[in-house]
Amino acid sequence: MSWMDKDPSKLLQRCFIIGLIGIILCIVPLANKVMAVFDPAKLAFLNGFGLLAQLLALSIAVYVLRMRKIAEGPKDKAKSLIIVLAVSLIFFILQ
């Protein structure tokens, strides 16, 4: 059984956690630029991992949205997660 064969609420929970980890990984180098604790060149790779995690979470949310025969509750949560992840992804790409 694949991890993508689970119910939509469990997939949305995983999507939220992965997206949150991606946002935190993108915030760390941004905060380091302001506070200058570490060398910014050494933390630049975290942006790539953060963007990758956000894209993974976005793809899971789109997968849940495209599932057939699910209730309106998970679909609404998937729509809101897609909006939040898309905005954060655009913000961190343009920073």
Main traits of this protein?
mainly alpha; 95 residues
What does the model show?
The protein has one domain. The termini are far apart. The longest helix has 28 residues, at 8-35. Helix 1 runs antiparallel to helix 2 (45-65) and helix 1 runs parallel beside helix 3 (72-94). It is built from three helices and no strands. 76% of the residues lie in helices and 0% in strands. It is mainly α. The chain is elongated and about 50 Å long. The chain crosses the membrane at residues 12-31, 43-65, 77-94. Keywords: Membrane, Transmembrane, Transmembrane helix.
Write the layout of secondary structure elements.
Layout: H1 8-35, H2 45-65, H3 72-94
Helix pairs in contact: 1-2, 1-3, 2-3
User: Quick one: biggest sheet?
Assistant: none
Helix tally? 3
Overall pLDDT, averaged?
A: 91
Strand content: under 5%
Task: Count every beta strand, where a strand is a DSSP E run of 2 or more residues.
Answer: 0
Runs with pLDDT <50, length 5+?
Answer: none
From the N-terminal CA to the C-terminal CA, the straight-line distance is 40 Å
Summarize the helix and strand pattern as letters.
Answer: HHH
How would you sum up the global shape? Answer: elongated
Portion of residues within helices: over 70%
Give the C-alpha Rg.
15 Å
Give the domain tally.
Answer: 1
Structural class: mainly alpha
Keywords: Membrane, Transmembrane, Transmembrane helix
Transmembrane segments: 12-31, 43-65, 77-94
Task: Kindly summarize this structure in a few lines.
By secondary structure, the protein is mainly alpha-helical. The chain is 76% helix and 0% strand.
